[in-house]
Amino acid sequence: MLRLFLKSQKWLSRQFDRMLPGKFRLDGQTDYQENIVPAYLKENQRIYDIGGGKRPYLRPGEKDRLKAAVVGLDISAEELRKAPAGAYDYKVCRDIATFRGNNDADLVICQSLLEHVSDVEAVFSAFYSILKPGGLALIFVPSRNALYARLNLLIPQEFKNTLLNTFYPKSKKIQGFPVYYHKCTPRDLKHLAAANNFSVLEEFYYYNSVYFRFFFPFHLLWRVWILSYYLFSKEQSAETIALVFKKQKIRRGY
Length: 254
Known about the structure:
Elements: H1 2-17, H2 28-36, E1 46-50, H3 60-66, E2 69-74, H4 77-81, E3 90-93, E4 105-111, H5 120-130, E5 131-142, H6 147-154, H7 157-167, H8 186-195, E6 198-206, H9 216-233, E7 240-247
Parallel strand pairs: 1-2, 1-4, 2-3, 4-5
Antiparallel strand pairs: 5-7, 6-7
């Protein structure tokens, strides 16, 4: 009975969303994976997949086709062990906030990781140390300004897991990591980029999420909120963010 009720509520939420402008319906992670990252992939690149763990961005066949050398960097050795065979040429089990590289990468892919790091400033220093001059960092992150992010910071982890297991059982495999959303806003991320001598090549903002679809009245109220917030704050109201940074040749202060 509960399953049928939830299914009906999600259906109503999706039907309502169809009436909204396209920019409020676009899923950020899908756009990042299917359009943004592929636009920057080239042959013979050295790529760092930061936090990809058991779900690397490039599947082994695509990695081989591009003749890419992929470094998988993750804080969890267990996550790295679960990655598909051949997905990574090198595995590094380290905290990205304390890692320092060799300035040899063409591309950094960092997807849904920064919200789990308590010191994002240190991560930008790590990105700078990993990339060669002219190298690119492709970042996707949920925004701290999103309503679900604010709730996420308030609700105890065990209770959140119970709620997600009930309303979104498919998310069970990707739960369990603490969240901070430190500096995870459009303004803060661009400030950090400038402070670490990155230029912003492209920026994408998304105003869609699924967290309230399980109960249409909640979803409707959230939609009213996000549309109102957008009128006053534009990209600061985004639910998720994708940014493309380029490492400049000379770091300020050096």
